[in-house]
Write a structure and sequence with these properties.
The chain is an alpha/beta fold. The protein has 20 helices and 15 strands. The strands form three sheets. The chain has a seven-stranded parallel β-sheet, with helices on both faces. Helix 12 crosses helix 15 and helix 16 crosses helix 19. The protein is globular and about 70 Å long.
């Protein structure tokens, strides 16, 4: 009787259902949870915000008990695994330290000796080698319930997922795309004949044979077309693209995103800065500070920044930081250069720190040289330590982007008590709120019209704030720093992605 009772109890207890398996496919990442293996903290390959978002998402999923896998290229040199024997030994430890392998490194010589994630000449071959390994090896091994892909270098994978009944999410970090013929894709070891009708061609395909050589596949648009859900890295940028606000977006990408939005299959999720961006713990700063003692901390960092860049030592000088690459297409360099000399004449104590690289550098150099602004306007190539010191020592951050899929400087700078001056577009619109003294709200200064006059107005508004009493500035800066730390973090970003996963799958993915 006792045995019968035990058996009845055993069979009546609901068996725990297997959690869905998530495979994140990304060409970039900054770190992985320690528990995922001995190599986890060595697998760092970063070119932009995708790396930070991927890392934070994997970490959050892992900590919450999700069955999460990661596929990325084996950048042996960047991972400090250049010795084949060392690599094999460490890779074996990863595999043996887990019930099953959760880190999947795509193997191809094109990755092994690289020092950067992307290349001006080899991106096509790198993208195809990466996707070949994921399609031919990782997906059959992992058998995921959902695949999360990122940008054009993973654009074929949602098509493969759709062909095999696997759910997929495709994230657009920007709108860059590439086009390749089916024959080129197949020559690199991907059996495109198996999923060709899930791809997006540049014209209507009549048959596989007819389109194989002369009808290119658009990789980014294939990801959009085939995925179950698509997200951009800010809600406003998605709206801008769908509504046709940006002429640089190809019409077919616009159309496919519109289709997804119309079907309720598109959304925007903001990126977040890396966790190291904090004035309290930033490893690149000699003088740390908190919202409570930011006045003293920022004063010390301003002095250090002025010394490092050769600017006149003046603790009372309002200091503007330009931290974004000097890209004349996107970043609004022409607006700032148009008014730079005028600003220095109107505000005789104004200082500017340009810590950035890019093709527009020569134009700023000419302005500095012609008007002899060497002790008031400094320009140096980008370096991480100087950029961090810039965030800590400057009073304002200038970001007049023509467009911005997400943007990170406008989220980083208020964490350091450096208020953004920015164009009201894309991810900036979602993260910078107009400053308002009366409502005790806002975190920056926005201009709506993309003109030099618009930027000039916004900078003057910021300098009006700088001329307020010390108590007023201290109060608002402290509030902005606290709000930024609570608002712009990976915990919030990962939460939004997990909720989206669960919406796509119709079930929980974590414990």
């Amino acid at each position: 009787m006792q045995i019968a009772s035990l058996l009845l109890t055993y069979f009546s207890v609901p068996k725990k259902r297997k959690k869905p398996t998530i495979l994140i496919v990304t060409p970039e990442i900054t770190y992985l949870p320690k528990g995922m293996g001995n190599l986890a903290q060595r697998l760092s390959a970063k070119a932009g915000g995708m790396a930070d978002v991927s890392a934070s998402l994997v970490n959050a999923l892992y900590e919450q008990g999700a069955d999460v896998h990661v596929a990325l290229p084996n950048f042996r040199r960047m991972f400090h695994l250049e010795s084949h024997n060392v690599f094999e030994a460490e890779y074996d430890k990863v595999n043996r330290s887990l019930p099953e392998q959760h880190i999947h490194l795509a193997q191809d010589r094109i990755f092994f000796h690289r020092s950067r994630v992307y290349s001006a000449t080899e991106n096509h071959n790198m993208a195809l080698a990466f996707q070949r390994e994921v399609i031919n090896h990782t997906i059959p091994q992992v058998r995921p319930d959902l695949i999360h892909c990122n940008d054009w270098m993973t654009g074929l994978i949602p098509a493969v997922a759709k062909r095999n009944g696997i759910k997929s999410l495709f994230t657009l970090h920007n709108i860059h795309t590439e086009r390749l013929a089916l024959s080129t894709i197949e020559d690199r070891g991907i059996d495109a004949a198996d999923f060709w009708n899930e791809c997006y061609f540049m014209r209507q395909p009549h048959s596989y044979e007819e389109s194989r050589e002369e009808n290119p596949v658009d990789l980014l648009t294939t990801g959009i077309f085939s995925a179950d859900h698509v997200n951009t890295v800010s809600p406003t940028f998605l709206s801008e693209v769908v509504d046709g606000h940006h002429s640089f977006v190809p019409s077919h990408i616009n159309h496919e995103l519109w289709q997804k939005c119309n079907a309720g299959k598109a959304s925007g999720i903001l990126n977040a800065p890396d966790v190291s961006f904090s004035p309290t713990t930033d490893p690149h700063l000699d003088h740390h500070y908190t919202p409570k003692n930011h006045v003293e901390g920022k004063a010390k960092n301003k002095a250090a920044l002025q010394h490092a860049l050769g600017l006149k030592h003046d603790p009372n000088a309002p200091l503007l930081l330009w931290p974004s690459r000097l890209d004349p297409v996107q970043k609004g360099t022409e607006l700032f250069s148009h008014i730079l000399h005028q600003l220095t004449e109107e505000h005789l104590d104004l200082q500017v720190a340009i810590v950035a690289s890019g093709e527009f550098k020569k134009h700023f150099s000419e302005i500095i040289h012609i008007h002899q602004l060497y002790d008031r306007v400094a320009m140096v190539d980008f370096s991480e330590p100087l950029s961090r010191l810039g965030y800590a020592g400057a009073d304002f951050m200038v970001m007049p982007s023509r467009f911005e899929p997400c943007g990170l400087p406008q989220m980083v700078s208020p964490k350091y008590g450096t208020l953004p001056i920015a164009h009201d577009t894309g991810g900036i619109h979602d993260t910078v709120d107009p400053f308002n003294y009366n409502l005790d709200s806002g975190n920056g200064f926005l201009f709506e019209h993309y003109t030099p006059e618009g930027l000039h107005w916004a900078i003057n508004e910021a300098l009006n704030f700088y001329r307020q009493s010390a108590d007023v500035r201290e109060h608002h800066t402290r509030r902005i720093m606290i709000e930024a730390a609570n608002r712009f973090n990976h915990k919030n970003t990962a939460r939004d992605y997990i909720q989206l996963y669960e919406s796509i799958l119709g079930e929980s993915v974590t414990d």
